[in-house]
């Protein structure tokens, strides 16, 4: 009798183990083999808001914790998005594929290392749903915090492999490099620019370069980064200016925090003309320089250091963008504008999107 019970217990244990393995295999097939529809070549003169994929979304716009992009498209008509930010996982080294391990926000759980994480699967599903509805995304690398790829390593081959694998995984036609903070180091960016040039040669990927700016234009740190990518012959489709967070002492005489963005764009256009001539021997017309520019305000309330960026200022930026025919308008962030995060400067859902989506 004891032997029979023992055999039954062993049999039950074996069946449990088999069931767990089988269930894990099914989950793995559902995520590791996730197939994206291909991205798109974007038109010019469009509105492309940033979506913070590092912050879990709750409520009606949640796709298992990720932003439901298709739903936003259906509500607003906005169909192109920058998804931010993918970074290196800080504690990891170069993996067996000669690539950096990466994640959204540098988080292991939001990466292909954790393919069965519900929130990560939500990101994948949301992108696919949007593309099937006619929209598309660019992935933004870097950002103000964490560890950008080019800070994690200056090995050009590793950088290229990492970008290339992500471009293939997500079916990307467009990427964004958000270069700020500790990501501004010139030697790091030289390595990154070489990798991006190699990536462009292989995939013809469109690249936007996101840089800080002041009302007087880009300062030395940003101009030096622009110089690096031009000298390495990276084709920059958009130089996306972070028209935001201006210290009070930088506001030019007769201007306010909102109109300062117009000066930032105007002065940056002149700098872009100068740098394209100096480093590529290309004579851009004023119109061509403006078409290279994207403008990204931080809508609503950012911190006590800065005034609230109002809807009225957004309208001024839109009108100026239309007058100068700039290449792109963006904003930080769609999360604020759908009120998925509390922001005292945003009173109604979509109030900024309704302005900028006219572009």
TrEMBL record:
This protein's name: GH18 domain-containing protein
Organism: Clostridium thermobutyricum
Lineage: Bacteria, Bacillati, Bacillota, Clostridia, Eubacteriales
